[in-house]
Amino acid sequence: MTAPLADRLRPETIDEMVGQRHLLCEGAPLRNIAQSGHLPNLIFYGPPGTGKTTLARILAKTTDLTLRKLNGTSASIQDVKEIVAEIGTLAAPNGVLLYLDEIQYFNKKQQQSLLEYMESGQITLIASTTENPYFYVYNAVLSRATVFEFKPLTPEEVEPAVRRGFAFLEKEQGCKLDVSDEAAACIAAASGGDVRKALNFTELAVLAARPDENGGKTITAEAVQKLTGGNAFRYDRAGDEHYDVISAFQKSMRGSDPDAALHYLARLLAGGDLPSAVRRLMVCAAEDVGLAYPQILPIVKAACDMALAVGLPGARIPLADAVILVATAPKSNTGEAGIDAAMADVESGRYGRIPRALQNKHFDGDDAAQKGQFYKYPHDFSHHWVEQQYLPDALLGKQYYFYGDNRNEQAAKAYWDAIKSEDRS
């Protein structure tokens, strides 16, 4: 069985790697560590296909440690114990460099089993994860390791790997490959920053091409597009990228940028994540537009109901309308700020007895100093308003809501200022 091209063509040195210049260029921290010949415990964090495993293999060659590899999805504590048992034997005379892929799948007990050996220096750990290590790796392990973040590669960074892949296949298969610049660029763009995926596309493009009369093959952009169609987008509903996209989605609407908001909506929908788009859109309408345009709430709710009813791809149309409406609407968060302030008082114990006039009882006990409810029914008064105490005594004079500086709330402020001023005169 032939190994994938990404494994057959795995770089042997840092200079052969593409991307991650912030870590690997001359003078960068990780390159300096590699050149020092001494490895501390490391955690590599980043999306798939960005060079984490490749760099771990290269770093392993710079030490006299015995390389052992485990994968968090299938390894157990027993596997760790078996590796530890090799320490000091002919199998690992100078210690072990343990490369633990997908460490986020190790539970707390499994991760803790590594600590004793990390502290003693018997095991040097290089762990990789596609999830935020500060959420998925336990503090005791984090405190003994240094985290380096790997970033998705740009198409320009991926393209040299694609060209190297074609050159390797041309030599391996012994046939002339005529690859257009557009074809190589198309593969790089379709990879979504994943070199492994780009090399898979590269090999697939060669396998799918029909030989000419001389045995050579021509790789065109049109042929590549047919192979890579729909593969350029990468979205993990359960991973960090999910939360980054929905965060950017709401912040773009809040920031009144309809173009960015539509972009992040498209990413959610391309990933099939209709429920997240709907939830965040409704939250944003209430939280960020709110009282500046209160009519927006039933409009957005109707658009979301329609989207859920018709499903994708049709759902994109009412959602796009609603997103543009929210992004271009006047903004106010006075409602959110008001309820947050009120909740803070209640949760900290700052509340008191409800004023007698507002209580749901119509008689007083013997201990009441003044009998009677004395509630004033506002509709019996001019403008349907009368001054009376509503807040408990402990919060008398407390203000939670402050009118926003938008036209709608300022109109309400002017209305009530006039009425209350008239009543006091």
Unreliable stretches (pLDDT < 50, length at least 5) are: none
Count of individual helical segments: 20
**What share of the residues does DSSP label as strand, in percent?**
5-15%
Compressed to H and E, one letter per element, the order equals: HHHEHEHEHHEHHEHEHHEHHHHHHHH
- Please tell me what the overall shape is: flat
Helical proportion, percent range: 40-55%
Q: What is the mean pLDDT? A: 87
Judged by helices, strands and strand pairing, the structural class is: alpha/beta
Strand neighbour order, sheet with most strands: 2-3-4-1-5
Tell me the major beta sheet: 5 strands, parallel
Radius of gyration (Å): 32 Å
How many E-type strands?
7
Terminal CA distance reads 93 Å
Question: In words, what does this structure look like?
Answer:
Helix 11 packs across helix 12. It is built from 20 helices and seven strands. The mean pLDDT is 87. The N and C termini lie far apart (93 Å). The strands form two sheets. A five-stranded parallel sheet has the order 2-3-4-1-5, sandwiched between helices. 49% of the residues lie in helices and 8% in strands. The radius of gyration is 32 Å and the shape is flat. With 425 residues, the protein is of the alpha/beta class.
